[in-house]
Amino acid sequence: MTVSVEWLDDWDAIAARAGDALDRTRRPILFDRLDWYRLMGTHLHPETPPAVLHADGGWLFLVGDGPGRAVALSKWYGLAWRPIIDEPAALAAMLVDAGRRYSRLILNPLDLAEANRLDAALKHAGWRAFTDRVSTNWTIDVTGKTFAEFWRERPGQLRNTTARRMKRHPLAITIHRRFDASAWADYEAIYADSWKPSEGSMPFLRALAEQEGAAGTLRLGIAKDGRGRAIAAQLWLIENGTATIHKLAHREGAKEISPGTILSHAMFRAAIDEDRVTRIDFGLGDEPYKAEWMDTPNPIYRIDAYRPDSLRGLAGIGRERAARLVRRFRGG
């Protein structure tokens, strides 16, 4: 059976073609929705039109990234990426067609299942694929647990340190479930005064917070000290039983009182006891503190795929093979 593939590079045209197929009502995961991709494209790739493949109800969201190269439409804020596919034949057809336009694809972040599926599909479509582990996603299943039960399972050092800090430095904590301009101003001020580098696009985060606040999934936690100054902030989204921690920051000058830990205690308690989530996702990154709150490390992968029938593709394959030989020689 022949599958027809079309390329779309305009967000309004994509929306018209998708109808409600990529809406919140049809896609339970944020990273599968058109409004997520549109925010990403508009704010993070403003000068580059999307390169979106559509075939038989399937979607592949890419963006051009130099001559002969495309990357997954994801960037800093994307905690997951995958083809949106109902029929396997659609994925095969789109990857074959992508090979007519590009000599290299960079696809990430991918969980293990997606990495395996894409690796097999790419090779079947004539690509040479190289898969590398690039990060970790920490999660925990809290099905049926109260916060008290969850907290008893955490390391003793975390529980004891948090108790001491909370007693010595009581903070006023508010968790906003709708977008609040004043709270958002606090978030931006905290982030600007934190240990973290400047955001790639604060307007993107604000647009996401406004969008999810309207949908009722936003949880924006702000912690203030005794003087009423906001010193820690966390941006969570809660939907369909899963709480996802997207961003957290505290003022560098307040780190000795551990405001982030105190705020985390409140955010986890609200998610478990009030929202009754069954799963908490700490996003990407293998920072040691995440293991204190979570219990399951999930590997995250990146695929670099090349067309062996193009000069650029052959050069890329050569570089990948050489890099792997060097790592093997060095024991990496």
Characterization of the model:
The mean pLDDT is 95. Helix 2 runs antiparallel to helix 8. With 332 residues, this protein is an alpha+beta fold. The longest helix is centred in the C-terminal third of the chain and has 20 residues, at 311-330. The protein has helices at residues 11-18, 34-44, 88-101, 112-124, 147-152, 156-168, 181-192, 202-215, 259-274, 288-293, 311-330, and strands at residues 6-8, 50-55, 58-64, 69-72, 104-110, 128-141, 172-176, 218-224, 230-239, 242-250, 279-284, 296-306. A hairpin with a 2-residue loop joins strand 9 and strand 10. It contains eleven helices and twelve strands. The chain has two domains: 6-135 and 300-330, 3-Layer(aba) Sandwich (Aminopeptidase); 144-277, Gcn5-related N-acetyltransferase (GNAT) (Aminopeptidase).
Question: What would the keywords be for this entry?
Answer:
Aminopeptidase, 332 residues, twelve-stranded mixed β-sheet, 27% strand
Concise account of the structure shown:
Its EC number is 2.3.1.-. The protein has 332 residues and is α+β, with helices and mostly antiparallel strands.
Secondary structure layout plus pairing:
Layout: E1 6-8, H1 11-18, H2 34-44, E2 50-55, E3 58-64, E4 69-72, H3 88-101, E5 104-110, H4 112-124, E6 128-141, H5 147-152, H6 156-168, E7 172-176, H7 181-192, H8 202-215, E8 218-224, E9 230-239, E10 242-250, H9 259-274, E11 279-284, H10 288-293, E12 296-306, H11 311-330
